[in-house]
Structure formats: structure tokens, C-alpha cells
Design goal:
By secondary structure, this protein is α+β, with helices and mostly antiparallel strands. It has helices at 32-36, 79-91, 186-197, 233-241, 254-273, 343-346, 353-369, 382-397, 403-412, 443-452, 463-467, and strands at 58-60, 74-76, 95-96, 118-122, 137-139, 145-154, 158-164, 170-177, 208-211, 219-227, 249-252, 276-277, 286-288, 293-298, 302-307, 312-314, 321-322. The chain contains eleven helices and 17 strands. The two termini are 28 Å apart. It holds the Pfam family Pkinase.
Length: 475
């Protein structure tokens, strides 16, 4: 599974990789004092007996090669995960050789000469690392304490710790870093407030926000604490993919793509009703919330993952922005991780809800194929990589940019790309994204993707249309 190391921005629930700085280049500079002024410490709380906090059990787990740390890695399992892991160990990893069902829409080839191998395993939480610089405890100014059991990861704007609260539940604590242009986290905070007022079962909720008594070095006192969820879609795919031969790739079953995709579409439509753009929807930011066991069926070219549980949540509102209010004009900002970035944003046109729809389309095809559908070539500058990304979109989809969109791009004056490579494609010969389709039973998914990968956002599906598409009718 190819994976660009530059692309993913911060996350509050997963192993953090390098940030794409372009997703935050327009933030407003301010002092950390302004960021924290809204919350003042409570001095009225009575002294109470210190509760005994439990350290979370550790279990060894192979470290991902894409990890940001070179130290030995381990996985920390939450209470629920420990139960699931024990059940899987009791069951034992076993191999069976069921007969090949060539009519199974999840089976890869109708010409398989050997039966598939079915393996049972358990995915665990995102990579959690122990390091000597971990603070033992995060203590809020209210006196509440959280034992630090590990670190999910670190990015440009924050550090995410794996912690256990006084209630003996596991949480993710995102501590905001100090920077010259301070990341105030105000959009993220406002997004959590709107979601808390109108919650959705597939959207992550904030447990609490607060100020730390003694923040880690280079960090502000501000911290967001959310429930610690399970592994992300990327974590599971990457875990299986690491054990495969180079000629194979890991994919999710079509049934699981349908179930998970419907939940994501419902969650994103709910965000749309709350007038929130997510702008960082990707495999890393969709996480499982229970029952992380899965089976794998090995075919000649693909190994298909079938999850025991498919309940998920969309997480990480660190790049969230809000719909313009009456009379306001949507301004252009460079948003979204590059491999998930919508073409209108690459063309210097302001983002919209349809930009998130494009990102979801990229996520669905990545679950199906095991690879990002559009991948830029590494360059000496961000401009070169953006140029390469747009070219790959156009050549993969075998399409071009409509004149209307080119005119919008020209009028906006924000596009720095060389568009002379654009040319007409024979629409009768072009297969577009359907060239990745393995068998006819997968057609409903690709009919949906055709409509999500429309270059002109005005003709692209909305999340209301996506969630009601025929592909999701069987969920």
C-alpha cells in the first residue's frame, strides 16, 4: 500500500505523521494567553482524597514502518480491546481452506486455482509509543488528573497522549503546542460545541477541554480530551498490508465498504447540517469503536479484510471551518491533505461541502483497491507536488477541467499551476475510475464514485445524495 509520508495532518486518535502545513497556513496569529483566556482555573474546589489511577496494560505489537519514532513500539489496549484481544487469543489464529465461491462479490478473481486462506486476527489501537520524555500525569487546573500511558503521536500543532482518567476510562489528550503563529484551536473547539449541541452517533464528541497545571515543554496549557477509540481504517489496512507479498495488496470487503461508507456519509451529512466543513476526511480519521477482530481471505492479487464489527466514527476537527454566514463571501484557503484534495482547491477556487465529498470518494476507492487513487510524485516544492497531483487526477479519470471552472480559477487569481497540459479526452473511449473495477458485481460502487469524482463541484453529488445512493441501499 503506497503511502505518502508528507500528507497527513494532525489527529486526536491515531498515530500522527507529518503535517501538511498548507492546511493551516491561513491561521490568525495571537498569543497563547488569548487562547486560554476563556478558561480560568477553579480555586473553589475543596481538597479531596487522591483516587488511585490504574496504569493500562501493555502488550507488544509490531511497529508500523511509517511510524514517526525509531524506538521500540508497543500497543496499549483499552478495556474493551483487552477483552476482544483475549477472546481472539482463546480462539487462536487458525487457517482454513474453504471452497472458492466465484459468485461472491468480495472474492477477487473467478480464475483462482487455489483456495483462499482464511485467517482470524484482531486489530488493536493505533500505534502508541512509550518514550522517556512522557509526562507521568496531565493535571488540569481543576485538579483532575490523567495518567499518561503512551503517546499516539506528535504533529506540528499538537501532541496526542494516550491517558487514563480517574474514572479508569481511556482517553486521548491533545495538547496544543506553542508557535510563533499560535494555533488557537478555536475552530476545533467551536466544532466540538456544535456537535455536542446536536450529536451524531458517528461523530466524535469532546469529553472535556481544560488548562494544564504543568504543560509539557513547548506546549500551551490548552488540552482537548476525547474518548480513546480503536484503530483507524488506515491502521487496519496497513497492519494487514505489512504482512503481504509485494505483488499483493490489502483491501476491505465490498460489504464492509458499504457499511462503513454509509456511516461516514451520514456523519458528513450531519456536519453539513451544522454548517461545518471537515476538510480532513481520510482513512486516518475514520476509526472503529468496538470489536476490532477481522478475517482475511488471501487471493492471487488481493487479500480481503472482513471486519467483525463495522461501527465507526469520524474524528479530528482540527482543520474544520464553517460555512459563510449571510452576506459573507467564501475566501480561498489551501485546505485538505494533498492526496485527498479536491480539484477546485488545487485550481485556487474556494472549498465547499463538495470538497469533502471528493475526499470521501478517495477514501472509498482506497478501501477497495488498497491504494490512494490519485498520488503525486515527490517534488522539490509544494507547487510541483500540487501540479503532479492535478495531473494524476486528470489522467486517471481521463477527463479535463471544464471551461467554466478554468474561468473561475483565472478570476480568483489564486492558482499557480501550469494548466497547459489540459486537453480533451475521447469520452466514448475513457473508462475513468472504472478501470480499477475488478468485477461486474462492484458496479454500484463505481457508479457512485463516478458522481463523487466529477471535476466540477457544482455537478458533484452532495452528502444528502451520497447517503441515499443505491450502493448503500442494502445496509
Amino acid at each position: 500500500m503506497k503511502r505518502n509520508q508528507e500528507s497527513p495532518p494532525k489527529s486526536s486518535q491515531k498515530k500522527c505523521k507529518d503535517f501538511d502545513d498548507t492546511t493551516q497556513e491561513n491561521e490568525e496569529p495571537s498569543s497563547s494567553a488569548m487562547a486560554d483566556k476563556e478558561q480560568s482555573p477553579s480555586n473553589e474546589k475543596e481538597v479531596r482524597k487522591e483516587p488511585q489511577l490504574e496504569k493500562t496494560a501493555m502488550s507488544k505489537f509490531p511497529r508500523s514502518p511509517t511510524s514517526i519514532t525509531k524506538s521500540s513500539a508497543s500497543r496499549i489496549l483499552s478495556n474493551t480491546q483487552q477483552e476482544n484481544s483475549k477472546a481472539t487469543r482463546d480462539m487462536g489464529i487458525h487457517k482454513m481452506s474453504p471452497p472458492v465461491d466465484t459468485d461472491d462479490p468480495d472474492w477477487i478473481s473467478s480464475k483462482v486455482s487455489t483456495p483462499p486462506v482464511l485467517q482470524v486476527a484482531t486489530a488493536s489501537q493505533s500505534d502508541i509509543f512509550k518514550s522517556p520524555d512522557l509526562p507521568p500525569v496531565l493535571e488540569l487546573q481543576t485538579g483532575e488528573k490523567f495518567i499518561v500511558n503512551g503517546k499516539f503521536g506528535e504533529g506540528v500543532f499538537g501532541i496526542v497522549y494516550f491517558v487514563r482518567g480517574e474514572d479508569n476510562n481511556d482517553y486521548a489528550a491533545k495538547v496544543i503546542k506553542e508557535r510563533k503563529n499560535v494555533y488557537l484551536a478555536l475552530p476545533e473547539e467551536q466544532a466540538y460545541k456544535r456537535i455536542a449541541a446536536n450529536p451524531h452517533e458517528n461523530l466524535l464528541l469532546l469529553h472535556l477541554k481544560g488548562l494544564l497545571m504543568n504543560p509539557p515543554p513547548t506546549c500551551t496549557p490548552k488540552v482537548f480530551i476525547t474518548p480513546a477509540c480503536g484503530p483507524s481504517l488506515f491502521d487496519v489496512l496497513d497492519k494487514v498490508d505489512r504482512d503481504l507479498h509485494e505483488s499483493q495488496s490489502a483491501t476491505f470487503s465490498l460489504t464492509d465498504i458499504r457499511k462503513i461508507g454509509k456511516q461516514v456519509a451520514d456523519a458528513m451529512h450531519h456536519l453539513e447540517t451544522l454548517e461545518i466543513y471537515h476538510l480532513d476526511l481520510k482513512m486516518d480519521n475514520v476509526v472503529f469503536i468496538k470489536d476490532f477482530a477481522y478475517e482475511t481471505e488471501s487471493g492471487p492479487n488481493h487479500t480481503v479484510i472482513k471486519m467483525a464489527g463495522t461501527d465507526v466514527k469520524v474524528i479530528d476537527y482540527g482543520n474544520a471551518k464553517f460555512h459563510p454566514q449571510h452576506g459573507e463571501k467564501q475566501v480561498y484557503e489551501s485546505v485538505q491533505t494533498l492526496v485527498y484534495r479536491a480539484p477546485e482547491v488545487l485550481l485556487g477556487i474556494p472549498h465547499s461541502v463538495k470538497s469533502d465529498v471528493w475526499s470521501m470518494g478517495c477514501m472509498l476507492i482506497e478501501m477497495y483497491s488498497g491504494e490512494e487513487p490519485f498520488m503525486f510524485e515527490s517534488g522539490d516544492s509544494k507547487l510541483e507536488e500540487e501540479q503532479s497531483q492535478l495531473k494524476d487526477i486528470i489522467y486517471t479519470l481521463e477527463t479535463t477541467v471544464p471551461e467554466k471552472l478554468l474561468e473561475q480559477s483565472k478570476q480568483g487569481g489564486q492558482c499557480r499551476l501550469d494548466l497547459t497540459f489540459l486537453g480533451p479526452f475521447d469520452e466514448f473511449e475513457a473508462q475513468g475510475i472504472r478501470k480499477l473495477m475488478r468485477q461486474q458485481q462492484d458496479l454500484p460502487l463505481f457508479q457512485l464514485l463516478d458522481l463523487m469524482f466529477t471535476v466540477d463541484p457544482s455537478n458533484r453529488l452532495s452528502f444528502f445524495d451520497v447517503k441515499d445512493h443505491a450502493f448503500f441501499a442494502e445496509t
